[in-house]
Amino acid sequence: MPIARAAKRATVRLGAVVLAGALLAACGSGDSSDSSDSAGGKVTLNVDLFGSFGFKEAGLYEEYQKLNPDVTIKQSDTQDEADYWKSLQTRLAGGGGLADVQGVEVGRIASVTQQQADKFQDLKEFGADKLKGEFAEAKWSAATTKDGKILGLGTDVGPEAMCYRTDLFEQAGLPTDREELAKKWATWDGYLELGKEYKKKAPAKSAWLDSVGSLYGIMIGQEKERYYDASGELIYEKNPAVKEAWDTSVAAAEAGLSAKLDQWSPQWNQAFAAGSFATIPCPAWMLGYVKGQAGDAGKGKWDIAKLPGGAGNWGGSYLSIPRAAKHKEEAYKLIEWLTAPAQQAKVFQKQGNFPSSTGAIETIAGAKDEYFSGAPIGQIFGEAAKESPVQVLGVHDQNVMQQITNALSEVERKGVSSDRAWGTAKKGVDNVIG
């Protein structure tokens, strides 16, 4: 995200500083016959994204326009990735209303490469194949079709950690040292037990975590196989990793540890500043979101510790160019520059989005974040990125995850039983994927 990406990216992106809803009308038209907007050769590139990719916040658009004075960049955003993807599918089907650059969450990239390759530009035609060695292999291969088409350049990945409010921990009598906490919640059972301790002395109107949906998302990101196996078979119903993440999330809901907030909702956004939860599962791209929602008043109140249960990845995104884009060559030059090591490093330093560029990863190894109490984010997320499994991605990964987290919300907010909610999740998956 940028999710949730997804989870969201969650999709990240996985993964979110602007209003949700329909995509802005600033998207480029489907006319690909002209490569300039005027006789003078000036070009307006429309970039359509979801969540917070960090380009604008890190000043990259402004920098690129200074380097290329004939180029103007206009970005449009949708907060919720699911809304963004639905709208994008509508416009891809019609061939019009598409931007020059479209963001794609990692949970959707298999759909692009396996089902929609004819809708997106093969970036190899612009020389993208020469960049292969600059990206992590898993990131590169996920956006490459079986016949060698390159349909996206990777922006970030989503190595996972746990963000927490030190001031709320202190009020509840819990330790605040990140190393001590990492030991206490080395397992997810340990995390829930510490949450129960927090609940006993928690400040008024403050829960242990934001939502069980975010707990599920971070746990499932620790697994290599989730919803599909390597052969492309849908396996979520029989995958013990999915069951464990589901059961742990249900246990958190039934223990009353959640603030019962839907991620990306206005209420969730407001809760960052209000202190409505003490911990939030935190892929790297979430750091910028926390800063944006908690504001200056949150500086120094947050910290980051190693994730319970081992390393994982949640979210991460790509930049792709639709076949119907108006300015494909100019768009490619922009996305190649945005995803280059120097620019990925700048986004990380500003927003926390962890690079997919191997060169950028090396340059940010010693980075710390004063907003998060000086946490060594380069080390924490760098180690998580190295240890994370290479995940098997399926064509409906994001859809399956959305149905499961929707069902968990029923457990969390309405007290629906685990069995009944799981049945709802399965029906939802069947309806979505046909």
UniProtKB/TrEMBL annotation:
Glycoprotein listed as a keyword: no
Record flagged with keyword Cell wall biogenesis/degradation: no
Coiled-coil segments on the chain, per record: none
Domain of life according to the entry: Bacteria
Signal sequence residues: 1-25
Any Pfam family: SBP_bac_8
Keywords tagged on the record: Signal
Record-linked SUPFAM superfamilies: Periplasmic binding protein-like II
Entry protein name: Extracellular solute-binding protein
The species this protein was found in: Streptomyces anulatus (Streptomyces chrysomallus)
